[in-house]
Amino acid sequence: MDLLAIPFMRHVLFAGVLVALGLAPLSVYVVLRRIVFVGAAVAEISSAGVALAVLLQYEPFAVALVLTVLTFLVLSRVADSPRLPLEALIGMLYAGGSAAAVLLIVKAPRGEADIVNVLFGNILTVPVPLLWTMLVAFALVIAIQYFAYKEFLIVAYDPDMARALGIRVDVWNTIFYVTAGVAVAIAIRGVGALLTFTMLVAPGAAALSVAGSLSVAFVVATSLGLTCSLLGIFASYWFDFPTGPTIVAFLALGFAASYGWGRLKG
Q1: Backbone torsion region of residue 34, taken as left when φ is above 0, otherwise alpha when ψ lies between -120 and 50, otherwise beta
Q2: I need a labelling partner for 178 at 20 to 30 A (CA). Which of 37, 121, 147, 187 fits?
Q3: Please, what's the largest Cα pairwise distance for the chain?
Q4: Which range marks the domain in which residue 176 is found?
């Protein structure tokens, strides 16, 4: 109750819940598609976009959002390409984005601490306007996932079957990747790259380790994301830990417990 009496901690709780609701269900698709490192690669591209915007004195969030969505669009075009494995493209995006971010930061005129805050975000300092942006964006992401559940699932799980059923795999891939791009770009700006990447992988991986069906996996993933987010925020307040890494630690523990339980039950 002490925590809820502090205004900025209420903002932290709000941000943690929004990120969990927006990214945890997406993590099931990410694991099914075997693109678990896409979050790390896109985080570097987003960082490069922010550094470029700072260098050119543009709005950092807008540039990062555009670059992130464009990156996901590129991924959607090569998702089923027989010529180029998706893992190879993700690896090169990660390497290229990392190098570009470092080189651009070196030339940026703003202070290092200021740039780091803009680059990586901090769940403890999420401004109120960004919270409203997160609310609208994640509500849209959740709605798209709800109404496109069947298409997203069959395209992720068995694209050949989807084609046989007359489903436009390329169109639904594009919709999925654009949705994921918007969610990831906003989450990185709000809570940082590490928490965004972990929330985009751990809940889905844990859920698929224990759930008996894919529909149950979405419920488990969302519940785990929410639980770990709240536990991490409360624990960081009580024990004076960094909030983002504490949430990540709970997500890692949740995955480890789920994976162990799944192995034990076969």
Answers
A1: left
A2: 121
A3: 57
A4: 14-193
Residue 6, Cβ density class (10 Å: 0-12 exposed, 13-18 middle, ≥19 buried): exposed
Amino acid at 231: L
Tell me the two tokens of residue 243: 């909030």
Q: Residue 50: inside a domain, yes or no?
A: yes
| Residue at 209 is within a domain | no
* Residue 236 forms part of a structural domain: no
Q: Report how far residue 85's alpha carbon sits from residue 79's, in angstroms, rounded to the nearest whole number.
A: 8
Spatial distance between the Cα atoms of 47 and 41, rounded to a whole number of angstroms? 10
pTM equals 0.82
pLDDT of 109-163, one tens digit each? Answer: 654 555 555 555 567 778 888 889 889 989 999 999 888 888 888 887 777 788 8
Is 98 strand, coil or helix? helix
Q: Give the pLDDT band of residue 202 (cuts 50, 70, 90).
A: very high
76 in any annotated domain: yes
Residues 45-85: pLDDT tens digits? Answer: 877 777 777 777 777 677 777 877 788 777 777 666 666 67
State the CB neighbour count (10 A cutoff) for residue 238: 10
Number of domains in the chain: 1
